[in-house]
Amino acid sequence: MPKHPIRKVTKLGFLWETENPFLFCAHHKDRYPKGNGEQGPAASLAGRNLGNDFTLRDGWRMYHGDRVPGFPEHPHRGFETVTMVLEGFVDHSDSAGAAGRYGNGDVQWMTAGSGMQHAEMFPLVRQDKENPLELFQVWLNLPKKDKFTPPFYKMLWAEEIPVVEVGEEGGPRSRVRVIAGSFQGTDSLEPAPASWANDPAGGVRILILDMDPRAVLSLPKGSDTLSRVLYFHEGETLHVQDQAVSAAHGIHLAPGGEVLLTNGPIPSRLLLLEGEPILEPVVQYGPFVMNTEEEIQQAFLDYRQTRFGGWPWERPDPVHGTGENRFASHEDGSREERGPVGKEGPI
User: Spans of biased composition, class Basic and acidic residues (predicted)?
Assistant: First the structure.
């Protein structure tokens, strides 16, 4: 008799338990109020632990920001971030002088590699109504051979991310956004060039799943060494083969076989992370992920001496103008421009 596909089920909080090659996954969901003239909240910040505000109060957090919510200037080395914004906006700034505003379905793929500083701020661009934000940020490890690759980032714009629809016309359906890897013969956009997701040995697949009530969806068979975790963050009940799982749980799946998902009575939203483990030591200290303690110590020394290129911005928490136009400017001087996109558009 084949073994059940569920290995374990974990409760979801702000940080989600991940498996190799993934290092970290955070789910940000903040119901920010109207914005003020600085693109911060038009609300009192009294009583908040500014600089380290991770307590959900009135439905939102400032994180490390003291004027605009988000994460001011900070360093990374040795891994990648994949930031998937379902709703709201993120303003990117980095030590190479690159910048951008992205959101409402966009994905930023950033390789920290040999070392970079960046800021990730959440601008509250609307002053006439609330500014809800929802995003996933995933940290994906780099193998030893690529830990010192030059820093790099690219945008996967919402309008261009492939979406696969599954189900009979007129019946319950599922929509699968293919962020990395492939699904039912549809390939994702190209990830960053040095990424484990760009290596055929990596087997990386990142999918965002939206399932109608009673929809049925099958996850394809994988290798016998694959790590695979399904994060059921919104809905009521999901059946994985014959086992019911309630929402707000991570479902750690066994490698190998096909997995049948049957949704419950209300719409469900899920994130799938899977990939082949990187079979190397992992030593992490804060924003640095290397293979040895000595490499971690060297990362701190290099950062103190070079600041990974310095910080060319006037403030540690830059925001980029007003409005909902999206853009990306790169170190080489190239620039991408995108207009506003509705939440119900490409998502």
Answer: 327-347
